[in-house]
From TrEMBL:
InterPro entries: Aldolase/citrate-lyase_domain (IPR005000), HpcH-HpaI_aldolase (IPR050251), Pyrv/PenolPyrv_kinase-like_dom (IPR015813), Pyrv_kinase-like_dom_sf (IPR040442). The keyword Ribosomal protein does not apply. This is HpcH/HpaI aldolase/citrate lyase domain-containing protein. It comes from the Bacteria. It holds the Pfam family HpcH_HpaI. Keywords: Lyase, Metal-binding. Residues 21-215 form the HpcH/HpaI aldolase/citrate lyase domain. The keyword Magnesium does not apply. Belongs to the HpcH/HpaI aldolase family. SUPFAM superfamilies: Phosphoenolpyruvate/pyruvate domain.
Amino acid sequence: MKKNKMKEKILLGDMVFGLGLDSPDPMMVEYAALARLDFVRFDCEQGPYTLESIEHAVRSAEAADIVPTARVSGVESGFVVQLLNRGVSGLTFAHTRTARDAAAAVRSVKFAPEGDRTLTSPSGHGMHARWALGLDAQDAFAFANSETLVVCTIEDPTGLANIGDIAAVPGVDVITFGPNDIAATMGYTGDTMHPEVRKAVRDGIKRATAAGAAVGISVGSRGAEWAADYVEAGARVLQFLPAPLMIDAVARTRADLGV
């Protein structure tokens, strides 16, 4: 496990950029590093990831000096400790609705006394814990607690209503928003550009920022206009989505070429 440069930049108030990956491709991790992004996020909530593929992708991230993170469906997924042991430096928890959800997320990521992450050995150097490679046994657990990143995603009206309480939970580093699920739960399924959805997300960003949280958003093919609006509202962590961006870029290039 390395020093978490993504977390360091967040704490400094800097803009942070990353790439959300739907599939476990180490080459895409390297492309993200070549693009001078700060992090990659492996979608373990909906993507076709295995622990073995995660470990290879993490190795690629470490070699390319880019921070490896992952998204999980929640603390109850049973995947949290296994991902952390593979060397993932940050976790995004989907569908965070309450401060209790956020506190459970933090506890699952941190070793005692800050949490209840389980140990593989007294030194952290057990056979299932490659995260501890290169770390002194006496400092490994404290280092992991200081460098792991916890991200909570707001995806419904309950989460939106509880943003202040969620942001106040110690150990929550970033709050992000899931416009697709927010739109669906507001009755606008598939319409993330609906004015009411955009208003809800923008208001959420402003309230999370006012509560002292760093805020993240994802940017896809139709994202430039509303992303700029959300950045103006206070978003500082931008995750690019390669599939929609590629589809949009190909369409625009073909249009420019007239073919």
